[in-house]
Design brief:
Blueprint (H helix, E strand, L loop, with lengths): L6 E6 L5 H10 L3 E6 L2 E6 L1 H10 L6 E9 L3 H8 L14 E8 L6 H16 L9 E8 L2 E7 L21 H10 L8 E3 L6 H11 L19 H8 L11 E5 L2 H14 L5 E5 L14 E4 L10 H18 L4 E6 L2 H6 L11 E3 L2 E7 L5
Parallel strand pairs: 5-6, 8-9, 8-11, 9-10, 11-12
Antiparallel strand pairs: 1-3, 1-4, 2-3, 4-7, 6-7, 12-14, 13-14
């Protein structure tokens, strides 16, 4: 595949957040993004794949669609897989592995399907197969149509390359970025997280405000593809459009270890100059000097770090403090139980769709500016 040839690019999102990711992809200049279950599809060439991995905050991974064809039995899959232009994408010296899924198709054995495709790659390209490492080729056989993609990200994109320390029940950076976007955050207001844990929301907000690319400090699988152009990539990832944020981003936590962790993570991410973390209980949360902004919080959920009944006082205290001291601020709260949200007494509008997180289904609850 030539570097200027266009094809479908799929960016994965947590189910329930596809529309938010589509908005980000469109605003970053990608062509006609459309929501599909589990993500967003756009069209582009290989430089767009590199850009998507480097720029898009909310995507979990980026897949390049190589081919799609109708197939009803394994011999046909074997034959058809040999006609995929593997040599234009994969390198013969780089290991690969194949994962397949089958749904409502006459080919129903995913292991056998993966094996046929892997054999086709080995025998037509000569690349070594590896059970653990290398480039991941994905095949999805649905309604007798096989779609073959290559995972261009490698490690999931929430692994930005900065966060060494995490606390219990951490939120992924990709999900935090999508929730910030859903709250209307675009980098032009202060943010405060009164239960900041390892600092994910605060650090993500500071990076957005400073226009730092989320993928600036890590490696990607596409660097091992035959389509990779190291010089073009070096130019693309060279820092530009950076700006000094007009506001600061604040995290509080009652746990001293969480505060130390957040400071270390912010330092590695290069946003320590614009973030403040301090040890304080919820009762001491106060807005910083300056204009109002966004309070965003991911409190403990029932069934995760404590049972729902035991958490009622915490949510009640959070609601009282925000109502008393944060006039003019909007609130975004990630929660799994409506009764805990209700216990805050805050004027939440109907929530966003349920999103899977940590084995539970959570929703983002938002308020208008508090009176």
């Amino acid at each position: 595949m030539a570097n200027d040839e266009t094809f479908e690019i799929f960016l994965s999102a947590p189910p329930g957040l596809e529309a938010v990711l589509a908005q980000e992809v469109g605003l970053k200049g990608f062509k006609r993004p459309r929501e599909v279950p589990g993500g967003v599809i756009t069209r582009g060439a290989w430089p767009d794949v590199w850009r998507a991995n480097l720029w898009i905050r909310g995507a979990g991974r980026v897949l390049a669609r190589l081919d799609a064809f109708r197939v009803v039995h394994l011999a046909q899959l074997d034959q058809r897989a040999r006609r995929v232009p593997w040599a234009g994408v994969l390198r013969p010296d780089i290991p690969f592995r194949v994962e397949a899924t089958c749904a409502t198709s006459r080919i129903y054995h995913s292991g056998a399907a993966a094996q046929r495709i892997a054999t086709a790659i080995r025998e037509t390209l000569g690349a070594p197969e590896s059970a653990e490492d290398g480039i991941l080729v994905r095949a999805r056989i649905e309604d007798d149509v096989c779609t073959i993609s290559v995972d261009t990200s490698g490690e999931p994109l929430h692994k930005r390359g900065f966060k060494e320390a995490v606390n219990a029940a951490p939120m992924r950076e990709t999900m935090a970025a999508l929730f910030l976007r859903q709250c209307g955050f675009d980098g032009n207001e202060p943010v405060l997280d009164p239960m900041c844990g390892s600092g994910t929301f605060v650090i993500e907000a500071a990076e957005i405000a400073a226009r730092l690319n989320p993928g600036r400090a890590r490696r990607f699988a596409f660097e091992d593809l035959a389509t990779f152009d190291a010089e073009a990539w070096a130019r693309m990832r060279a820092p530009r459009n950076l700006r000094e944020p007009a506001h600061r981003f604040h995290g509080l936590d009652r746990d001293a270890g969480a505060v130390a962790m957040s400071r270390a993570n912010a330092g590695r991410a290069g946003v320590a100059a614009w973030t403040d973390f301090r040890q304080a209980p919820i009762s001491e949360a106060r807005p910083p000097d300056g204009p109002p902004g966004l309070v965003i919080v991911n409190p403990p959920y029932g069934g995760r770090l404590g049972e729902g009944r035991d958490l009622l006082p915490l949510y009640q205290a959070l609601g009282r403090v925000l109502a008393a001291h944060f006039g003019g601020w909007r609130v975004g709260m990630v929660a799994s139980e409506p009764r805990l949200v209700h216990a805050t007494g805050l004027p939440f509008i109907p929530p966003g769709p349920p999103v899977p997180h940590g084995g539970l289904r959570v929703q983002l609850h938002r308020t208008p500016p508090l009176a």
